[in-house]
């Protein structure tokens, strides 16, 4: 199978003269490695991959793509579910080599280049006992996570990733470079906080840091037969739990591999993943009131560990190249009827890796006005993801069907719209539903900064 479009060698050679990074064409011996995506279900063949070394390379690549009328995709960490960091027959601007991180412990800020993963960021900030609120898997790219909003273990206390964004550097569709913050290009700064990659190539971020070092964290799991009771207790416990505590709930399967207890391999479970960021004396007391109301778990792996270790805990379970199909929604209420729908569909998990997670997004997330950022869903209690996952390509159809059926069973009870980082390519109406009344403002900003919709391989806001 060939890329759907070739680019003349003479044009590429001209581009190369002003580009310091590596240019990868389909003839390159490592082309398949460089074009591969996190989601093995997606297979795209770009005509050219421009692996940028810095901002000047990004500017050159944007100009090249625009001047040659190429479909152009932007790839940071490459963790995008629907594979929107690549394209067929066009140009991929690959930022993954831009890995600089600089921590300023005096101002408690960090400057991060766009190719960093959250693991790169955590490694640098942990040395200073500080962290940025990000996601839950350290292989996630900081760029896509941030531009979509970013929620994880620290969100209840410190807000979304975008709530901690102070500034960003962006290459626009015309190839120009701007710095955006609350004073400079404030409209664009508003838009990138949840508006995705619609407005330009973000080459660097400046984040506020918070005191995070050792955390009391880990999974606690029960048999699925106990899930009904656990979910009811959990929904009552969460609103009054200290915001230092994160507790996301999952319906999943014990993997048939160490370090999981062999006697429970393949067992369907209800799991709560805890993270408490506070003093050692406080941590157990924060979780104890919940655990006291629940049955004895099949395993309890709560322990004190470094925050980066928690962030990397799931990485070995979900390596690059597995089949993924996910669906999401925002959830305000976990009613008895909704719980029954969850249990009915979780009983049909199509593989050991498939799951449903409810991530709490209350606390500090709710204290930001819905109009303050493009990410409007400040009233939800959870962000839900249903993910069909397996290494076997032959299971792709089963994963899709299960995820779709599960989502359809729950969607009548959920809020309209899903977190864009938990969406496949689901159409314009789903995108509009996520942004709600903020959508029209995003369209105006899109027209101002990218009227030709050059940046359209994303969850696209059409100008």
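^ structure tokens above, recovered residues below v
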């Amino acid at each position: 199978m060939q890329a759907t479009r070739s680019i003349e060698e003479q044009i590429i050679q001209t581009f190369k003269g002003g580009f310091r990074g590596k240019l990868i064409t389909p003839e390159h011996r490592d082309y398949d490695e460089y074009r591969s995506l996190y989601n093995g279900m997606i297979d795209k063949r770009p005509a050219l991959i421009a692996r940028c070394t810095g901002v000047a390379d990004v500017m050159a690549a944007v100009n090249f793509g625009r001047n040659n009328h190429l479909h152009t995709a932007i790839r940071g960490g490459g963790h995008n579910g629907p594979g929107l960091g690549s394209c067929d027959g066009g140009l991929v601007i690959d930022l993954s080599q831009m890995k600089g991180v600089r921590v300023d412990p005096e101002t408690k800020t960090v400057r991060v280049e766009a190719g960093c993963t959250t693991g790169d960021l955590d490694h640098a900030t942990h040395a200073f006992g500080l962290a940025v609120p990000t996601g839950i898997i350290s292989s996630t790219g900081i760029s896509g996570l941030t531009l979509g909003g970013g929620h994880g273990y620290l969100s209840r206390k410190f807000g979304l990733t975008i709530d901690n964004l102070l500034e960003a550097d962006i290459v626009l569709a015309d190839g120009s470079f701007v710095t955006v913050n609350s004073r400079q290009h404030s409209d664009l700064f508003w838009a990138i906080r949840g508006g995705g990659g619609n407005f330009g190539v973000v080459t660097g971020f400046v984040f506020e840091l918070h005191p995070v070092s050792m955390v009391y964290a880990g999974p606690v799991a029960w048999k699925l037969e106990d899930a009904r009771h656990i979910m009811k207790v959990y929904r009552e416990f969460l609103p009054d739990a200290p915001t230092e505590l994160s507790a996301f709930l999952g319906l999943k399967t014990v993997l048939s591999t160490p370090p999981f207890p062999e006697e429970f391999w393949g067992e369907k479970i209800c799991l709560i993943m805890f993270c408490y960021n506070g003093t050692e004396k406080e941590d157990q007391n924060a979780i104890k009131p919940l655990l006291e109301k629940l049955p004895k778990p099949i395993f309890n792996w709560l322990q004190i560990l470094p925050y980066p270790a928690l962030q990397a805990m799931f990485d070995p379970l979900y390596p690059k190249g597995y089949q993924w199909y996910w669906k999401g929604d925002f959830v305000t209420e976990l009613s008895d009827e909704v719980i029954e729908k969850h249990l009915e569909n979780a009983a049909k998990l199509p593989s050991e890796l498939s799951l449903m997670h409810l991530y709490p997004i209350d606390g500090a997330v709710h204290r930001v006005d819905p109009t303050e950022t493009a990410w409007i869903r400040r009233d939800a209690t959870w962000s839900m993801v249903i993910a069909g996952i397996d290494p076997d390509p032959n299971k792709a159809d089963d994963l899709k069907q299960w995820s779709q059926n599960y989502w359809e069973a729950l969607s009548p009870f959920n809020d309209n719209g899903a977190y864009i980082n938990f969406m496949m390519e689901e159409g314009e109406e789903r995108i509009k539903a996520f942004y709600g009344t903020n959508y029209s403002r995003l369209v105006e900003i899109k027209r101002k900064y990218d009227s030709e919709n050059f940046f359209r391989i994303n969850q696209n806001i059409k100008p």
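The chain has three domains: 9-94, 101-211+439-449, 214-422.
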